[in-house]
Write a structure and sequence with these properties.
Bound molecules: nicotinamide-adenine-dinucleotide
Largest sheet: 7 strands, parallel
CATH architecture: 3-Layer(aba) Sandwich
Strand order of the largest sheet: 3-2-1-4-6-7-8
Number of domains: 1
Order of helices and strands: EHEHEHEEHEHHEHHEE
Radius of gyration: 18 Å
Helix content: 25-40%
Oligomer: single chain
CATH class: Alpha Beta
Structural class: alpha/beta
Shape: globular
Length: 291
């Protein structure tokens, strides 16, 4: 068990699958108590049990946090159980469509705004009064796509750019109370989203995603969780208003250099987080793919 987050209380939205599962398990390993949020059907109870079996502490809150009552209830539940809140992780989000802008169904646009933008706004709004008491911090899931744009799901890229600017504004506004706010901005990560079998990508997009990464591979959920743990900890006490890229060099790459990576470089590092739900995030969700 680590000590980076000893005695901290954290809420992780969308914590049942993918990167969220890794954040929950990493934070628990570092000594935090976790409230794991997820939609109905997400394996949040399974993640909480795995944390308890590993000697950590976690509770769950099922609910769609783009709904005002659910967002408020999520924060209230953490306070009621643990008496304080140190860390809010706005990880919940969706990427449900692969279509050009003129083909994008309007209801898909609305769904991305609801799950990616509205949820993070509501959770931050209700968490801030508690974060001020602990001089805590909030981290939102940005994206490389929020910096460079996301072709074939342009609204998604827009929602992530919103989160970058939202966190910068919160950082400057709340610094006077000792509250920090940052974004983690991953490139393609090995979750349901980046595989043609499970995500809103086809074979061409999947190939293009990987060839844009100088490391020539997806990042692992654990590699992203490591950065969340650092930013959430007191080790990052002078980091606020940052958009922390975890994209294997995708953003500065000017061409498809992924093919240059040597075989030993494109092998992901091992981790000991024992993840079971990395590829389940889009189970039962409706995807739109228009070629
Ligand atoms: N996978 C990637 O390549 C990648 C890249 C950049 C950024 N990200 C960001 O990381 C975050 C996690 O992505 P992931 O790949 O682990 O996907 P994922 O689908 O495995 O995880 C997202 C989780 O959020 C939950 N969720 C969605 N809307 C919700 C809501 N309104 N209320 C509560 N829970 C909700 C989902 O059910 C799911 O469990 C997302 O915000 C995503 O934008 C992912």
């Amino acid at each position: 068990m680590g000590i980076k987050l000893k005695d901290k209380v954290a809420i992780v939205t969308g914590g049942g699958t993918g990167i969220g599962e890794a954040i929950c398990k990493k934070f628990a390993r570092e000594g935090a108590k976790i409230l794991i949020n997820g939609l109905s059907g997400d394996p949040i109870k399974d993640v909480a049990k795995a944390i308890a079996d590993d000697g950590g502490e976690a509770i769950t809150f099922e609910g769609d946090v783009s709904d005002e009552a659910a967002a408020r209830g999520c924060v209230d539940t953490a306070i009621k159980r643990y008496g304080k809140l140190d860390i809010l992780i706005n990880n919940a989000g969706v990427l449900l469509a692969n279509a050009q802008t003129d083909d994008m169904p309007i209801e898909m646009f609305d769904e991305h705004i609801r799950c990616n933008v509205r949820s993070a706004f509501l959770m931050t709004k209700y968490a801030l009064p508690h974060l001020r008491k602990t001089r805590g911090n909030v981290i939102s899931a940005g994206s490389e796509g929020g910096v460079n744009g996301q072709p074939r799901n342009t609204p998604y890229g827009g929602t992530k750019a919103f989160l970058h600017a939202f966190m910068m504004g919160v950082a400057v506004e709340q610094a006077q109370y000792g509250v920090r706010a940052n974004c983690v901005a991953p490139g393609p990560i090995d979750t349901a989203w980046t595989h043609k079998e499970t995500g809103a990508v086809d074979a061409k997009v999947e190939k293009a995603l990987l060839s844009s990464v100088p490391f020539g591979r997806r990042g692992t959920p654990a590699e992203v969780a490591n950065v969340y743990a650092f930013l959430a900890s007191d080790d990052a006490s002078y980091v606020t208003g940052a958009v922390w890229l975890v994209d294997g060099g995708t953003t500065p790459a000017k061409s498809a250099v992924g093919g240059l990576a040597r075989r030993e470089i494109s092998k992901p590092p091992a981790n000991d987080l024992d993840l079971h739900h990395s590829h389940e995030g889009l189970k039962d969700k409706e995807l739109v793919k228009i070629s």
